[in-house]
Amino acid sequence: MEWKRKSESEARQRVFDALKNNVDYRSGSVLGIPGTYLDPKVFSAEISFVREAPYLSTLVQNPNHIGCHTLGNSESYFEGTHVLEREVIRICAENILCAEPNSIDGYMATGGTEANLQAVWIYRNYFMQMHQADLSEIAVVCSEDSHYSMQKAGDMFNVHCVLLPVDQETRKIDLQKANEKLLALKEGGVKYSVVVSNMMTTMFGSIDDVDVYAGLMKNHGFQFKIHIDAAYGGFYAPIVDDNNRINFLHPEVNSFTMDAHKMLQAPYGTGIFLIRKDWMKYAQTDAASYVVGADCTISGSRSGANAIAVWLIFAAYGRHEWFEKCSILEQRTSWLAKQLNKRGIQYFRAPLSNIITINAYQISPALASQFGLVPDDHTKPSWFKIVVMQHVTVEKLEVFLTELDKSQR
Ligand SMILES: Cc1ncc(COP(=O)(O)O)c(C=O)c1O
Q1: Is the pLDDT of residue 183 over 70?
Q2: How confident is the model over 146-165, as a mean pLDDT?
Q3: From CA 247, how far away is CA 214, in angstroms rounded?
Q4: Cα–Cα distance between 182 and 242 in angstroms, integer?
Q5: Is the pLDDT of residue 329 over 80?
Q6: Which CATH architecture has domain 79-307?
Q7: Among residues 160, 110, 125, which one has the least CA distance to residue 298?
Q8: Do residues 89 and 70 lie in contact, with contact meaning Cβ atoms separated by under 8 Å?
Q9: pLDDT in tens, 116-137
Q10: CA pseudo-torsion sign 388, 391, 394, 400
Q11: Ligand 1: which of 199, 259, 273 to mutate, most ligand atoms within 8 Å of CB?
């Protein structure tokens, strides 16, 4: 699917037309849905800037996007805006992650955590249903730099969660230590693994090598499925790196998490879950019998305005302008890296990443607090990170460097 920029008026028109194809609680005669437009005393649809703004109008009309709309059987009441959610899923899967047309299912989750949980849920159920696996035989396998949602997933879905050690300099999996851990896991009776490989880790922006994981799993004789946590990097790494190989062309990669509420600057509540067709069924809850098409998502009811927000951002940029925007962040980060090099400051930066993670011994607590640098551990920091988002301009970085210089004297 092409990702083309649209004029503002064209984008507005598409959204307002979509809203016309949704149920209109005001003029329609739908009596059975336990939902309606937002409370007019607080969220008036009559204020002109709400009436004219496609996102705010959607928010006030309050479409419910419960379920997964790429599967072909959803509630008809909100079909207008479901169409735009499907376009968002297709742009992510096909344009950014190189999938074949209509080969991917997906939905807008509450965030990266939910999308990661959804993946673990699906693969756990798959191993149980198709391989008669016992819960004690299944493990989530990821690196020690992974987001804590992996431990949450292990806890919630009652499976092991194993963090493979990484080399402290390169942030790559330490093969010797990983082999030891996997051997112990195997001896403990684990046969099935849900591998979660990172496309930009939370603290370091590092990207895991999917082939290393696949090799480890094969060598140890685990049945495995690979999910990519691209919550942070999904709208950045495949765009800035022409050589990116972590996408749906890779035969071992089965699903992705991408967060629009991070790099894409969409409102919170815009995590994206993507998976190859024929896999959502392992999370199908047939007991959701009052929902057309039933439900196979963790969220249940969710706001259709989130999909519209992401659709509007895609329409405002198109692929090429989005590339330009990411390139600016990459250049600012390279500028910062050069300044740190000149000063002999030790840091980690993955190639092309817009995260710079500085060894904590060089940063005083006062400096970290003044510039809102995020530590890896609030009680005993080893690292502080700078994330070069849109608001992190070179001017702001210059002020930081001046204060850093003063603190070093
Ligand atoms: C790599 C990664 N995965 C998952 C998450 C969780 O995302 P959320 O906070 O949207 O649930 C984050 C959040 O920072 C992240 O960096």
Answers
A1: yes
A2: 98
A3: 15
A4: 33
A5: yes
A6: 3-Layer(aba) Sandwich (3.40)
A7: 110
A8: yes
A9: 999 999 999 999 999 999 999 9
A10: negative
A11: 259
Assess whether pLDDT exceeds 70 at residue 162: yes
Nearest CA, atom 16, ligand 1: 202
What residues flank ligand 1, with Cβ below 6 Å? 111-113, 116, 147, 149, 201-202, 229, 231-232, 259, 271
> How close is the Cα of 18 to the center of ligand 1, in Å?
30
Mean pLDDT of all residues in 60-72:
94
- Averaged pLDDT for residues 74-81: 90
Angstrom distance (rounded) from CA 122 to CA 114: 12
**Residues 232-258: pLDDT tens digits?**
999 999 999 999 999 999 999 999 999
Q: Which atom of ligand 1 is nearest to the CA of 198?
A: 1
Instruction: Report the DSSP beta bridge partners of residue 224.
Output: 193
Grade residue 21 by pLDDT with cuts at 50, 70 and 90: very high
Q: Which residue, by CA, sits nearest to atom 7 of ligand 1?
A: 112
Ligand 1 center to 42 CA (angstroms): 31
Domains of the chain, residue spans: 8-64, 79-307, 318-408
* Contact status, residue 53 vs residue 305, Cβ threshold 8 Å: no
Distance 231 CA to ligand 1 centre (A): 5
Cα of 195 vs centre of ligand 1, distance in Å, is 16
Atom of ligand 1 nearest to the CA of 111: 10
Sequence-separated (6 or more) residues with CB below 8 Å from residue 174: 164, 165, 166, 167
Residue 196 contacts residue 227 (beta carbons within 8 Å): yes
Q: DSSP E strands: which ranges in 236-364?
A: 253-259, 271-276, 347-348, 355-359
Q: pLDDT tens digit string along 360-370?
A: 999 999 999 99
pLDDT of residue 359: 97
Domain 318-408, classified CATH 3.90.1150.10, yes or no: yes
